[in-house]
Design a protein that fits this description.
CATH topology of the largest domain: D-Maltodextrin-Binding Protein, domain 2
Structural class: alpha/beta
CATH superfamily of the largest domain: Periplasmic binding protein-like II
Strand content: 15-25%
Number of domains: 2
CATH class of the largest domain: Alpha Beta
Number of helices: 21
């Protein structure tokens, strides 16, 4: 079902004058003007605004839209929720195939952007006022929306990799917080030896993101796409097997517990200290505070462990951007909205406070008030200092495939089987690669396997 949410301007003009003044002063920052270019669509005015449609599943995004319209009377934004993730992407693809019927602007996870960019469905925002995106946003996220000189989205949020851990569990085991994966394995042994019902972490047979996160940090390049159709798969590389062999050791040694991330059982395990760490994107804090509030003060955050002493490389888990469809008749206005929503200081505050999203602009991560805020749930820790370190050190060479959703969908039947059966993850990777290669060839890609 399609849900449409419109808020009439007359209603919004009742906001206090002081707030409106603040919005007007901040409204021009980080956005471009719709210059009515030949393929960018007509320019609207306050008396005759251009209307653009925005598809998003974020629950309270209308709050941010209202702020935009206060300062941009020449653009009306119609919000529609047509489904989450794949449901929305299917409707976008149907509109692309039909040549019309899609939104002007859409919320899209980073792993889905390449598939639509490859087929020409997304506008190059550098041609519509977005040429400063590489200078405005963190390099770690720009790399996820940029292909060559083309920019196919505005970064909105992201998940720099960190490690949340239970201080009480580590204290009881008498071990230090690990900084390397070798130390992490040592801590796993001590924690489980001290209490057989406790584990360093969990393995989810269906969570491909865990493998992505590890391979990303190792700069393993499990897939490389040259041009539009030449694909090389290498899930048997030395770096890939280093990840597989490491987790084989913990899994076969009984030092991890199998659990499904996000399930009630999994949250219970976190809440009771049965799972001692969660290596995830920084957004994990929102899940902890929302579902296990009784744990306030017990958790802290540390940098993601590294593979070798002296390493700093991290990776990411999760995140999304805002894209503009090529079929839009108002690409300039759509780009103006997408840029403002994700880079203007007022908008960034709204996304942070109303959506719980982690901002992606350089300016936000250079703001001492933002970085130094003490997070009560984490015992007053200045957690964003840790997030910022991870963001700076995130490997920027990672790329998603044009059919990444399929890659993730067959993880459970290949690597996941190895996790559950406690067999070789290297063999699971080989089976995963075979499935991906077969599918890619069916889609017309020329596939080379190393």
């Amino acid at each position: 079902m399609t849900t449409t949410h419109r808020t009439h301007r007359a209603r919004r003009l009742t906001a206090p004058a002081a707030a409106l003044t603040l919005l007007v002063l901040a409204g021009c920052g980080g956005s471009s003007t719709d210059d009515g270019g030949s393929d960018g669509g007509p320019t609207g005015t306050a008396d005759d605004p251009v209307e653009i449609t925005f598809w998003s599943w974020l629950p309270d995004i209308q709050t941010t839209i209202d702020l935009f319209e206060e300062t941009h009377p020449e653009i009306d934004v119609k919000l529609e929720n047509v489904g989450v993730g794949t449901d929305q992407y299917t409707k976008i693809q149907n509109a692309v195939d039909a040549g019309s019927g899609g939104p002007d602007v859409a919320h899209m996870t980073y792993d889905a952007i390449p598939s639509f960019a490859l087929t020409g469905a997304l506008a190059d925002l550098a041609q519509h006022g977005g040429e400063d995106i590489p200078d405005t946003f963190l390099p770690a996220v720009v790399s996820l929306v940029q292909q060559g000189d083309a920019i196919y989205g505005v970064p909105q949020d992201f998940g720099p990799g960190v490690m949340y851990y239970r201080t009480d569990v580590f204290d009881a085991a008498g071990v230090e917080v690990p900084t390397t994966w070798a130390e992490y394995a040592t801590a796993a042994e001590a924690i489980h030896a001290g209490d057989p019902n406790r584990y360093i972490t969990y393995l989810d047979p269906g969570l491909a993101d865990a493998a992505y996160m590890g391979l990303w940090q190792l700069d393993a390049a499990p897939w490389t796409l040259e041009g539009e159709s030449d694909l090389t798969l290498d899930l048997g590389s030395e770096a890939s097997l280093r990840w597989a062999d490491y987790w084989d050791g913990l899994n076969h040694g009984g030092l991890t517990i199998e659990s499904v991330q996000g399930s009630d059982e999994w949250f219970r395990q976190l809440g009771e200290g049965q799972i001692a760490t969660w290596v995830v994107g920084a957004w994990g804090l929102q899940a902890l505070t929302g579902v296990v509030p009784q744990n306030e003060g017990l958790w802290r955050v540390a940098p993601m462990p590294v593979w070798d002493d002296g390493d700093t490389a991290t990776s990411q888990f999760g995140g999304s951007g805002t894209v503009v469809l090529e079929q839009s008749e108002h690409k300039d206005a759509a780009t103006t909205f997408a840029l403002w929503m994700n880079s203007d200081p007022v908008a960034v505050e709204s996304l942070k406070n109303d959506q719980g999203l982690l901002p992606t602009t350089n300016a936000a991560w250079e703001d001492p008030a933002f970085l130094d805020e003490e997070i009560a749930y984490l015992g007053g820790q200045q957690a964003r200092q840790v997030f910022a370190e991870s963001a700076r050190n995130s490997v920027t060479t990672w790329r998603w495939l044009p059919f990444q959703p399929y890659v993730g969908s067959v993880y459970k039947d290949t690597v996941g089987q190895a996790i559950s059966g406690k067999t070789s993850l290297a063999d699971g990777f080989a089976a995963w690669q075979d499935r991906v290669a077969e599918y890619a060839q069916q889609q017309g890609f020329t596939v080379t396997t190393d």
